Amino acid sequence: MKQKLKIAIQKSGRLNEDSIRLLKECGIGFSNGLNKLKAEAQNFPLEVFFLRDDDIPQYVEDGVADIGIVGENIVAETDKKIKVVERLGFGKCRLSIAVPKGMKYKGLSDLEGKRIATTYSIILSRFLKKNKINAELHEISGSVEIAPGIGLADAICDLVSSGSTLFMNGLKEAEVIMRSEAVMVANKNLGKEQDAILEKLLFRIQAVKQAKNNKYILLNAPNKNLEAICKILPGMKSPTILPLAEKGWSSVHSVLNEDDFWEIIEKLKAKGAQGILVVPIEKMIL
Ligand code: ATP
Ligand code: MG
User: Cα separation of 270 and 31, whole Å?
Assistant: First the structure.
């Protein structure tokens, strides 16, 4: 029988949808019924396990799953012998210490002797030790943000993205301990066949990631400015130039990076570019 690569993704929660979307964008289809624990991809040698995110590193270390998608925060907290093979660009958040709004907070030394509630006791104790702060850790398994309000702790250490949960609970962010995003993790001793399938999958993921960072651009340009316009547009190799039916004009096609997008558009307009169209790219193979 042909070998399959086993991937563990979050069953439900913040990473579930984006993990499934990423696989679908890689052209990998599978059914994901609500109560399913397992699914087989139809057109790729992949078997998908739906698990709680906290359990994924252990399963990958043990080889029950070959690879997995989890937050870097979970990778750091569980401290398993696995390797991170790709950053995935979603599930971005930070692990922060927050204190009550009314507390005067000037720096880490204000945490000396305080009680801090968290579900991230490994990362937090490592951080406090490194900074030589003696604080009392209260490990709880959820609803950390209410701990100061009910008198369980003086501060918390939890994941933050917008900060609205902190705000609603009368807290303010005091220190960022780590920044996190979803990553692909892998077992350290993958077999040869599994490794080859992983390579294939990573190739597709990189094409999807590249495409997200880039846009396809088409514009009309007066021929006299073509040279200047081509200098502004780097493209993958160089821009494509096609003559327009109207004399003296050309159509220019190229690829633009999202980061310097607006700056380039302004420069193009200044050189007489017209009818600029910008379209998303689905896949990009370099
Ligand atoms: P599970 O039931 O799988 O254990 P969970 O409740 O522990 O789920 P979620 O809240 O769904 O986990 O978060 C999963 C991951 O999403 C986090 O570990 C983190 O990497 C990422 N994440 C991104 N933004 C946030 C945020 N604002 N709060 C919490 N997690 C976030
Ligand atoms: Mg969890």
Answer: 50
Distance of alpha carbon 118 from alpha carbon 128, whole angstroms = 13
d(CA 231, CA 238): 9
Residue 33 has pLDDT above 80, yes or no: no
Surrounding residues of ion ligand 2, Cβ less than 5 A: 53-54
pLDDT in the model for residue 1: 64
- DSSP secondary structure letter of residue 66: S
Predicted TM-score of the model (pTM): 0.89
What DSSP assignment string belongs to 182-230?
EEEEEETT--HHHHHHHHHHHHHHHHHHHHHTEEEEEEEEEGGGHHHHH
Decide whether any atom of ligand 1 lies within 6 Å of the 61 Cβ: no
Q: Is the pLDDT of residue 234 over 80?
A: no
Q: Is the pLDDT of residue 60 over 80?
A: yes
- Burial letters for 127-159: b for 16+ Cβ neighbours within 10 Å, e otherwise? bbeeeebebebbebeeebbbbbeeeebbbbbbb
Q: Whose CA is nearest to atom 24 of ligand 1?
A: 93
Query: What is d(CA 12, CA 58) in angstroms, rounded to the nearest whole number?
Result: 18
